[in-house]
Write a structure and sequence with these properties.
By secondary structure, the protein is α+β, with helices and mostly antiparallel strands. It has two domains: 151 residues, GAF domain (Beta-Lactamase, 2-Layer Sandwich), CATH 3.30.450; 146 residues, Reverse transcriptase/Diguanylate cyclase domain (Alpha-Beta Plaits), CATH 3.30.70.270. Helix content is 43%, strand content 21%. The strands form two sheets. The protein has a six-stranded antiparallel sheet with strand order 3-2-1-6-5-4. The protein has a four-stranded antiparallel sheet with strand order 8-9-7-10, sandwiched between helices. A hairpin with a 5-residue loop joins β5 and β6. α5 packs antiparallel against α6, α7 packs across α8 and α8 crosses α9. The longest helix is centred in the last third of the chain and has 21 residues. The model has no long low-confidence stretch (mean pLDDT 93).
Length: 322
């Protein structure tokens, strides 16, 4: 087994890593959404956001490696990945003398395939990786590499600056920028695999009334409550976001329109339960438009959003007329 070397700029790298104030913090949706998406897109059992400090690789986000928070740096594969500027690909660890007798290969989680994309704080400072792991050897082509770099860039944005964030600061689900990246990868996956998807465009009803009657602080609370209900309703692999104002969206891969309607029914049940609890002095309500993505005749994300918005607007207008 080969122990990973130390980068030449290790002191500066560690200073930058500590300045992030992320080590040993609780899981966060802004990172977890990326590892969930990576796991789904690449069909691997494990996807991690791994940060490498002096003695360990610590998992800021862990999708699939149950119960593990960190592993020693001297046996870490990510310790090798941060030494380079691009993806470290190991199609079969048993065929690589650096890793064949590594404890993480010989024992649980029995790593046979590893690919790690370094996460940069700056051009020369690598904080860790977005990595994919499988217990079986597998291929990884140029298109896969492009997709992994794109997802890693989302993590880098979160590491560097919340201004460049892919998260909505208020609700902590994706913002428009983050949704665009995740959704485009999802649609590409669906088109490649011949899988349907459904996009749901959602707008809160009478949100202006909440702001006017109870103040903008209460309006913010309404947005947070609704985002939490969405998170509890939609699956971990679905891309959900607040697009801005009182507009939300969900993209569900592998589900046709009728199946998406069932998810919306489930969301309505949760909204009803929230209203019955009388946590707020007003009731939450929403209108929605569902658009199905057909991989045989694919449409761009902007086209799906526009179509979903148009359907939602007609439904909202009919409510007012009624």
């Amino acid at each position: 087994m080969k122990t990973p070397e130390m980068p030449d700029n290790e002191v500066m790298r560690l200073q930058a890593l500590r300045s992030l104030n992320l080590l040993d913090t609780l899981p966060e949706e802004r990172f977890d959404r990326v590892t969930r998406m990576a796991r789904r897109l690449f069909g691997v059992p494990i996807a991690l956001v791994s940060l490498v400090d002096e003695n360990r690789q610590w998992f800021k986000s862990n999708c699939g490696l149950e119960g593990a928070k960190e592993t020693p740096r001297d046996i870490s594969l990510c310790g090798h990945a941060i030494l380079g500027n691009d993806i470290l690909l190991i199609p079969d660890t048993l065929e690589d003398e650096r890793f064949a007798d590594n404890p993480l290969v010989k024992d649980s989680p029995h790593i046979r395939f590893y690919v790690g994309c370094p996460l940069s704080y700056s051009d020369t400072l690598k904080m860790g990786t977005l990595c994919l792991i499988d217990d079986k050897p597998r291929g990884f082509d140029a298109d896969d590499a492009v997709a992994l770099r794109d997802l890693a860039s989302m993590v880098e944005d979160e590491l560097r600056s919340f201004q460049a964030s892919t998260s909505d600061e208020l609700t902590q689900i994706s913002n428009r920028r983050g949704f665009s990246c995740l959704a485009n990868h999802t649609l590409h996956y669906c088109q490649t695999k011949g899988v349907n998807a459904s996009l749901v465009f959602i707008d809160l009803d009478k949100f202006k009334m909440i702001n006017d009657s109870y103040g903008h602080g209460e309006g913010d609370r309404a947005l947070v409550y609704f985002a939490e209900l969405m998170k509890r309703t939609f699956g971990g692999f679905d891309a959900i976001a607040r697009l801005g104002g009182d507009e939300f969206v969900a993209l569900m891969s592998g589900r046709i329109k009728s199946e998406a309607e069932k998810e919306i029914d489930a969301l309505q049940v949760r909204v009803n339960e929230h209203n019955a609890s009388q946590i707020t002095p007003y009731e939450l309500a929403f209108s929605f438009g569902i658009v199905e993505f057909d991989p045989a005749t694919p449409h761009k994300l902007d086209e799906l959003l526009a179509a979903g918005d148009a359907i939602m607007y007609r439904i909202k207008k009919s409510k007012k007329a009624g």
